[in-house]
Amino acid sequence: MTVIDVNVEQDSTVEVSKGKNGLVRTGGAVAALVGVLAILPSVLSPFNLIFAAQILIYATVALSLQLLWGRAGQLSFGQAAFFGIGAYSYAIVGTRYDIGGWLSVGIAVAVPVLMAFVLGYFLFFGKVRDAYFSIVTLAFVLIANQVVISWRSVTGGDTGLTRVPGLVLPFGAFSIDFSTRNGRYYLAATVLLVGLLVLLWVRSSSFGLVLEAIRDDENRAAFLGYNTSWYLTAAFTLSAAIAGLAGGMFASVSTLAAPDMLDQFLSIQILTWVAIGGRNYLAGALVGTVIMRILSDQISSFLTDSWPLVVGLFFIIVVLAFPQGIVGELTRIKNRNVARLGGRRANVSPK
Amino acid sequence: MAKENEITTSEQASMGVGRRQMLKTSLGMGAAAALAPVLAACGSDAGSGANSSGTDPEAGSDPTDNPGGSDSSATGEAIKVGFMTDLTGITANLGDIQDKCFNLAVNQINSSGGIAGRPIEFITEDTGADSTQTIEKATKLALEDEVVAVIGLITSLVREAALTVLPSEKVPLLYTTYYEGAASGAVACDPYLIGTGQVPNQQIEPLVPYLTENVGTTYTVVGSDYIWARGTTEVLEELVAKEGGNVKSSTFYPFGTTDFGPFFQQLEEDDPDICWVTLAGTDFSTFLKQYEQFGATAKLVSPAMDEVFAATSPGTGVGTLTSQSYFSTVDNDENTKFLEDYQAAYGEDALVNSIGEATYNAVWILKEAIEAADGDSDPEKWIPKLSEVDFASPSGTIGVDADTQHAVSNNYIGELTEEGTIRILETSEGNVPQVNGCVLS
Amino acid sequence: MDSLISFVLNAAFLVSILSLVALGLGVIYGLLGVINMAHGELIAIGAYTVVVLTELGLPYWTALAVAPAVGMVLGMLLEATLIRRLTDRPLDAILVTVGLSLVLQQTLKAWFGATARSVPSPINGTFDLLGVSYPLFRVMIIVVATAIMALTFVFFVKSSFGLVVQAIFQNREAAVTNGVNAGKYNRIAFGLGTALAAFAGSLLAPSAAVLPQMGAFYLGPAFIAVILGGEKRLLGAVAGAAFMGGLEVFIGDTFTRTWGRVGVLILAIIVIRMWPGGLVREPKARVA
Q1: Which chain C positions have a beta carbon within 8 Å of B285's beta carbon?
Q2: Chain C within 8 Å of B85 (Cβ-Cβ)?
Q3: ipTM score of complex
Q4: Domain residue limits, chain A
Q5: Cystine design at B156: which of A79, A159, B217, C73 (Cβ 3.0–4.6 Å)?
């Protein structure tokens, strides 16, 4: 990402060609992802398909955190809060008011968006940044968790809301039933793709570039005339929208909204997924989530009572050995090879 | 049955590939060295039972040993059972006891001919005390391992999470912890839910008259802010009103409260006969220590007190009255034998409580029901036979109520002694569970 | 009157423990810029130290002295092996300490079992203050915690080590360019922070169920306290803890206990927004 940044300043023609190449490459990667997602239902067992659906939705939340942390530079301990608020919004309107379909999806996004906007506006315009921001998001997730545990008449208390209806979306004359076993998987895959496409758009847009500029030096961005507080509020809100969508669909897929879908422990887990994959890369959030979920699932079936130890050690090792995460490390290796290749060419051409 | 078996084998074949691919992914990540022996041990993952937590010397430690066949007497096709509890997380100490009791029952059954000649094969999974992990593991047990029943679980959160999966996959859950029953909209009445622990009426109905007679009629309630405490308090308030007493105040603390100082001020103001405690786990232990420090004098009564809690703060809470379906001091031959075997397997100091005993019973109830169905492990066949169960358990004879599918069991009112044991003061036999409006038969 | 006295005592108890934890976090954060997610486990290690020593038959008071030493040594070891590699990468340090927290918790569990351990109260009996009877042991905790905090401040204000640390607190880059060997200070500061956590754990042990995860509940409030008070000032952590503990008891007394928990967090967010520099501002006198 910083590479593109440099190019913007150096030479706009390079940027265009880079951009075109990048677009092709990104398009290829997305097409490959779609392909893999389409094949999975025919190769995975029913259990693994449901497990895959869980992972895809978690990956979507990880992507939403990547926007805020990797791109805008603000680390949030509260990502699970928006995920959970989305889940509860969907579950409450579904179980108590019998609302489903598009409206329930809309509500699962709208409620977290509203909260994030109010909180973001309040904080960012008050110059709350960095560690202060992180701690406030920690306080926020603690509050949200306590509220859903205690507000039993609405949220079902410590056991949460069960029998949450699955999602059926009408498209004109016909409708798609996402509540079947395969349907849940397709819903999860759709959510991931929607989140990913939105974030890819952000990455290529001027909005995304300004966020990176703010991350690298907020004063400079402000000096260039950008209202940085607005940009950060927007990033926070968009991030909450995607997290909320993922949460709502998670409630639909698992037919449950529970207090541990919005606690600090899930928040920290999401953080570790993004970090392991590489917080500066969209693909990092995706790869990190997939690896960590599969790893903890496998280990927890074998080392039933000591698996967190292995997960913890693995985590320490990855962070120490690959500061840029797994995707970051792969990119570095690739770039080094490209650079070596480029260097050789440079040597050859004068002859 | 034949058809079911076909599905089983083909599923397992495809499953094997899926899992191995996943393993490869994780192996590539650098944890290979650390994990290699474990993974190798579990290579034949088509349900060798080697997933057990290793607390059981017979079944867990040696993966080549088929725990189902530890004795030659059980030779038929294995019956696969899933066991789930909190092996990590905040309630891990209780999960550990359920795990031990489950393993003990399986070993006893397998070494005495299995279930109708068929050995039990089991897969242990950790809930992590987390709803999402519970859903995932319950799905795995139902779809991948194709177990005939899932046994275990502690908190209401994970029970409700497991129930989002198991009934729809037609896998019965034998839930082994006393809980709030139908209070507060919890799922308590489901053809695929079998309760081997108590519901509030079984615990509290015998207790309140006893308290009126022996202690007094005024109460101050302190509990954690959660469903079991609130549900139990509702039942208590009703019964106390009937007895002409009153509950002076109820305070509910959020989970993770480390200081109950303010409550003791309240207690001094109320000056009740009885201090009724329904705090959860660690908070309860913390409370007991601070109760002693504050020198409070109201009689402590808690339906959650047992020998396991007592051991976490020796010397505190002495004299606390409690009421449950089992204490290790229950005096009968079955309990003597049970404790002998338990301590032989897990050491002289190994403690056990009612949720452990209810786990032990659950395996035996499953055995009796399947045998009543002529050895057919198909839930559709053995669930209707549950009402025929008549098991001489460590807590006395237990059966299963046909309407609610919850255990009919004895209840013991006891008092915590200085040694940390429960001295039994009163026994009431054959208490029938009440789950509002539940008629499953 | 009774309720006022009991409020003050209860708040003082909560605040004194939270202050020790927050002060430890604050020293580490202020000096290294590292948010130590494994701080809760250090509390547990302090408590387990007391469990082990009292079970060996040593008096509680000995254990109280040994626990912070264990915390200090462990902290310095962790700094030397892990944290040192991450001083330029504070974000990664958060992540490593998350992993560390899992590892330490599981190690404690493997060692001591999942069942809670217990330490008998070294002092029994209650203390009568204007009609309110309060446990003597709690009064002792309040006194000892306050004394330790006072000592910590004296150390930071009077010793040459403390003065350099304060300089780093104020402006790390300037201090380093002036020839301060930050590495050495980092190690001692990290050890000091973990020693304070372990000490808090050893004070808590007789009033709590000793479990590997016992420190987790203090971590969130303690972080908030550090930020609330102002990261640049040591006294800030204590002021933040007083805010968190005092208001939680007050709101809890007035409304419900759950509102106490939630209300104090909401107020904390508002205060952080309104006074982003922290409750404790630039010093008028040279007080830490």
Answers
A1: 116, 118, 208-209
A2: no
A3: 0.83
A4: 1-43, 47-271
A5: A159
